[in-house]
Amino acid sequence: MKLAFVFVGGQKEPWLEELTESYRKKLGYFCQTEIIRLKPSKQARASAEQKLLDETGELMRVIKKDDLLVVCDERGDSVDSKKFSQKLVKLFERGRPRVVVLIGGAFGFGAEIRERADWTWSLSPLTFNHHIAQAVVLEQTYRAFAIWKNLPYHNE
Predict the structure, then answer these.
(1) Residue 65 to residue 48: CA distance in whole angstroms
(2) Integer CA distances (angstroms), 102 to 50, 152, 156, in order
(3) In a domain, 17, yes or no
(4) Which domain holds residue 127?
(5) Total number of domains in the chain
(6) Around 85, how many Cα atoms within 13 Å sit in the side-chain half-sphere?
(7) What pLDDT was estimated at residue 78?
(8) Radius of gyration of the chain (CA)
(9) How many Cα atoms within 13 Å fall on the side-chain side of residue 121?
(10) Which site in 18, 23, 80, 139 is 20 to 30 Å from 34, CA atoms measured?
(11) Do 72 and 101 meet the contact criterion of CB atoms below 8 Å apart?
């Protein structure tokens, strides 16, 4: 069982690097975990369509044919932590070699990624910058495993 996070965007922030490494280690107790960071397209913001095409191409190169793909997008399913845990467990039970969680660039995902997604997850109706979205995804994924394994982390 392998879990990969693919994040597009942003400059490195020391606090995010520290948080990412901390959660990568914590998640490593449950499964092999990798973090893949892709640089955003160098196209200007005014060239949003081309920027989206460039980033979609990069993402498609990272995604393998047999990956299970979770796309983080505000138009996805909104779930609480327990339901997210159940959904993640079901994805792992499908027996694919790798579950991949994607956070796209500033303009989201192209149609090719949306069509390829096995599940689209809304983190919130709010819009987050890339750093906050990455922190939320990592923490909620750890929480999901803790709920699954009945560890004393999640309180209700």
Answers:
(1) 27
(2) 19, 28, 28
(3) yes
(4) 2-40+66-148
(5) 1
(6) 16
(7) 96
(8) 15
(9) 26
(10) 80
(11) yes
- pLDDT at position 42: 76
Q: Is position 91 within any domain?
A: yes
pLDDT (tens place) for every residue of the chain, 156 residues total: 899 999 997 667 899 999 999 999 999 999 999 999 998 877 766 677 888 888 888 999 999 999 999 999 988 999 999 999 999 999 999 999 999 999 988 888 888 999 999 999 999 998 888 899 999 999 999 999 999 999 998 887
Reported as half-sphere exposure (CB side, CA atoms, 13 A), residue 2 has a value of 10
Which two structure tokens, joined as six digits, stand for 110? 């192209």
DSSP state at residue 106: T
Two tokens, residue 82: 């327990």
Residue 155 lies in a domain: no
Which tokens hold the place of 69? 């793909």
Residue with tokens 């490593």: 28
72 is a domain residue: yes
- Kindly tell me the burial class for residue 142, based on how many C-beta atoms sit within 10 Å of its own C-beta (0-12, 13-18, 19 or more): buried
Q: Indicate which CATH number applies to the domain containing 75.
A: 3.40.1280.10
